Fold each of these.
Amino acid sequence: MTADTHTHGMAPLTSLDGQRTGASVAVLLLAGGLSSRMGQHKCLLPFDHSESFIEHIAGVYAQVDPAHMVLVANMDMLPFRGQMRLMGHYGLRVLANHSPRLGRLHSLQLGLAAIPPALPVLVHNTDNPFVGVGTVAQIVAAKPGDGYVSPRYKGQGGHPILLSPGAAQMVRKAGKQAILKDVLHRVCRMDLEVDDENILSNINTPDDYMAHFGHMHLAHQVRTHA
């Protein structure tokens, strides 16, 4: 992993003129899927000996000091909210996705409904826990116009993406049968090259987890069947 990581208790990031970096941006974390390939909720997987994926990710985004931070979670995960110490500490609002089979667009729309329409929105999948503070700040600083920012590493697109208020509103209004990729094709994509290969990482299967975390002796906590 090459991205910079966070340290709890750090002050929120500020720009050169002293303004809060993320004061006019919202963060939407997505964990509303079925996690069928992993066999358990990916956002609750251990990142290290003290944090789960979602705890680590929220801790990084807290340093950007966003105006709102929302997690959309599969309803089945909500009984485990007691494991997420960060909710009160980081002001994370958790929304239930009662229909995970409706797909990613449905989760996005649930989360965007809780975010003021005037704000740009960072969208991050919780199966990528390797978010770097510097990379997030770089994306937040980009100006996508009415479109969205897509971070790239050596030409390949990754996450998080940054939706402009206009792009976020288009997603809000998309029909239930719409495909997110098709919705985003209607707006301009701004490619932002970043020096962070971890924007491409996804942990979708037990093998993926073991490849990244096996050396920390945490892989035994992941079920080895879907």
Amino acid sequence: MSTVLIEIRRAKPADAAAVADTHDAAWRTAYQGIIPGAELERLIARRGPDWWDSAIRKGSRIALMQFGETIAGYANYGRNRARSLYYDGEIYELYFKPEFQGLGFGRRLFSTARKDLAQSGLKSLVVWALSDNEPAVEFYRALGGRAVARSSERFGNRVLDKVAFAWNS
């Protein structure tokens, strides 16, 4: 019997290709049938290994959940970008490869990102999710997020509703 190490750690430039693969698989699962096909392909292609390498090298906060040698998921987070919302931090993205979804790993990665933000003085937190992405909406509700704002975003010829979930310290 072998033991597989599961760890959460900061992304390094050498992780860029694996993060791009994780992003690709997660987005195809999360948004197929929600974001129009051509637009989804364009969004995925835009976030290839070079994009992730640049983000990591520029100091973006990207935490990885590594399962053995495999990057299972990632969270990208920092200061809240929505000036109209009075929350300090924001988790911009939290995604897992499909085979790692629904196993409790998202909760662990969310907690790690939230703790890292709090240690930087960013005590309150907001996360945006497309309203049609029911698994994400249910995930953030289950974590105690309160719906505090709604907005919309254009993806190709479709305008999709999105909801902001928030947590206070």
